[in-house]
Amino acid sequence: MTFKLKVPDIACQGCADTITESLLALEPSAKIQVDVPTKIVTVESTVSLENIKQAIINAGYQIE
Questions:
Q1: Which of 32, 36, 25 is nearest to 4 (CA)?
Q2: SS3 of 42, please?
Q3: What pLDDT does residue 5 have?
Q4: Which pLDDT score, from 0 to 100, does residue 44 have?
Q5: What is the mean pLDDT of residues 56-63?
Q6: What's phi and psi for 13, nearest 5 deg?
Q7: Across the chain, which distance is largest between two alpha carbons, in Å?
Q8: Which end of the chain has the smaller Cβ count within 10 Å, N or C?
Q9: H or E element that contains 17
């Protein structure tokens, strides 16, 4: 499934890299796009939405 999440704390490419790494740790085959200007994280994954949200929160970011 594909999920789009608004993550207002994304400020730079470093933030995007941190989120990407945390999601890849959850599922190495996930496809992840982080759009820094719009602060949208798009995740194509077989992992549940709740687990994806938790990985982002655990990386230190909030989700709208």
A1: 32
A2: strand
A3: 98
A4: 98
A5: 97
A6: -65, -30
A7: 27
A8: C
A9: helix 13-26
pLDDT at 23: 97
**CATH numbers and ranges of domains, the chain:** 2-58 (3.30.70.100)
Joined tokens for residue 52: 């994806």
Q: Which token pair is 48?
A: 């549940």
At 50 the three-state DSSP class reads helix
DSSP 46: S
Q: What is the pLDDT of residues 2-15, one digit of tens each?
A: 999 999 999 999 99
Cα 41 to chain centroid, rounded:
5
Cα separation, 26 vs 30, whole angstroms: 8
Distance in angstroms (rounded) separating the CA atoms of residues 49 and 13: 23
